[in-house]
Amino acid sequence: MADSQSARPGDGNDPRDEPGSQGGPGSDANGSPYGPAEGDANSPANTSGSGSGSDPANGEPNDGATGADPGAGSTSPDATSSDAHAPEVRSSDTASADDAAPHRDSSSGASSGVAAREPAAPRDSAGDSTSPRSLMLCGARLVDGRTVDVRLGGGRIEAVGTAGSLAQSPQPGGGTRVDLAGYLLLPAPAEAHAHYDTALTAVSPTSDGPPRSAPEDVQRRTTEAALLQLGLGATATRTHVHIGDVAGLRSLEAVLQARRALRGLVELSTVAVPRLLTGVAGADGLSMLRDAVKMGASVIGGCPDLDPDPAGYVDAVLEVAAEHGCPVDLHTDGADPARLSRLAAAAGGLRPGVAIGPCAGLARMSYKPAVRTAERLAAAGVTVVCLPQGGCAVLERPSQTSPSRVAPVRLLKAAGVTVAAGSGALRDAANSVGRGDPLEAAYLLASHGEAGPEAAYDAVCARARTTMGLPEVRVEAGFPAELLAVRGTDLAGALSLAYSRIVVHRGRVVARTSAVREFCDFTGTSEFDLPRQSQG
Ligand SMILES: [Zn+2]
What we know:
By secondary structure, this protein is of the alpha/beta class. It has 2 domains: 44-187 and 475-528, Urease, subunit C, domain 1; 190-467, Metal-dependent hydrolases (TIM Barrel, Alpha-Beta Barrel), CATH 3.20.20. 25% of the residues lie in helices and 17% in strands. It is built from 13 helices and 18 strands. A hairpin with a 2-residue loop joins strand 3 (147-153) and strand 4 (156-162). Helix 2 (215-232) packs across helix 3 and helix 6 (337-347) packs parallel to helix 8 (367-380). It binds zinc ion. The site of zinc ion has 7 residues, from loops. Residues 193, 195, 240, 331, 392, 395, 424 line the site of zinc ion (ZN).
């Protein structure tokens, strides 16, 4: 993961220093795709590409994100405060293609210093979603190897042309240019399986007592988790929310409140997860499930494995889903072929779609029953959302006899099953180290041989979006401008070292993460012309 090497900390004289580094000739304050950091108001990078003095991006905080900035939790304060000479990643979102040379120099040669940091406070880039201005992404690499300019407007991709072809043309209504030299531009991933109501609740030695579940706590955690995943690239997320028991619908209400506040930054959909749906206790669960849908839950979920009557539970879920025209997304370990086959038979007629996951039990099944079960799921059109990071055992019957595994993706796909991949636990009781990174989910699939890099990314992107009922995204004119720029030149490299990221939602930059890594006192590298950051 060495993305730079050589020289001394803070040696700003190396012209190949990371753009934005302080001091040296290479330390162009406009070097980041965003220009200068807040507080550097004198930098010319604060001039927008269109020269607009009323650029809402300048100095204006994220709408809806103030106080929960995705960068706030991931900054390396010691790196930025302890070494005044270390290169600094600066940020603004108004750098023009002419005055910004982001990372152009970082693809060649050595650099200096010791630092690993991210920008302190990603800021909103292109105004609100109704901004008439367009956004030009210049010099981005695509997975097919082309280097292109991409013009965004009205929340969609307006045009894709060879590098330099669009940057010369005037942009309707003015606009912002972002230099993406050194970046791979991808359709943005989507998070198909999150648990925001319990995210970030893992108890640690520094925890201040057990996690609180008051609505304001749930709303805060949901906001923080959604922004965290947005910074990682997920511009749409589906989160499961527990309903019933003591909390009733309060957690769902809190998550929906967070959803409203996050509008314009990330699309958040909710899955209502009732505990019991059969027997005497199930009557209350059914009533609450219907109330949850009326309140705004858009997907019917649950965990049939935990109900005394799993088949009855599935029937109840499908009945409510059919009543309201909702898709279904159920938790199941998937270890029982008969149960899965029955679910497939029952689910086949539900038009909005049925997803199940994480189905790690399928990986413990012997081959032939697993194939037969997969074929039944495929015939019924049931999608499997696997969790390469591991299960989200909060809602499942934990396995006492086997470690966490991932569903057999190759086997499922060979049988014709649509397989998406999600993240699952995000630092909660099920997984205190859960990262919630869609690119890591893809990395794990590829790294463990369940898919090649392209198919692995497809699982967290196109297949996840399909599962969530979202329109397809391609880096082509006419498609939604839901994009992720990742440092690198090809997909395998991006999945391997996906540090620096720029996230576009509805045609505007909504998050960015920039990483700089440098090595101290290593002088024998310039002869190799090693890149400052991995180019994938
Ligand atoms: Zn789950």
